[in-house]
Write a structure and sequence with these properties.
single chain, about 120 residues, alpha+beta, Aspartate Aminotransferase, domain 1, 6-stranded antiparallel beta sheet, 5 helices
Length: about 120
Amino acid sequence: MKKARTVEEYLAKVKEPARSTLERVREGIRAAAPREATERISWGMPAFYHGRTLVCYAAFQKHCSFFPMSGAVIEQLAPELARYECTKGTIHFPLDKPLPAALIKRLVKARLAEMDSA
């Protein structure tokens, strides 16, 4: 399968219900990210970029994932993420249930704060 070169190409290749789930995640990120943040494909998945990679998201066979690009952000919000399967750098959620918009906003804001302090 040919790799997507744009976010739209990536999403067009994702099957439902994951496509709708990712589109809602994308909307949540867009609402929380600075206006000047741009979208691109990074590491083969959709990403928001703000001087460097802000966050990424993707669909897999059995789940969707949100990548805050920081284990520290996941640790910081661990109580709110307790109901999700998390690794050091990834939050997994069901193919048909996006992360809540309020949680996406907190994740993006925490990542921005981390980037600003670096």
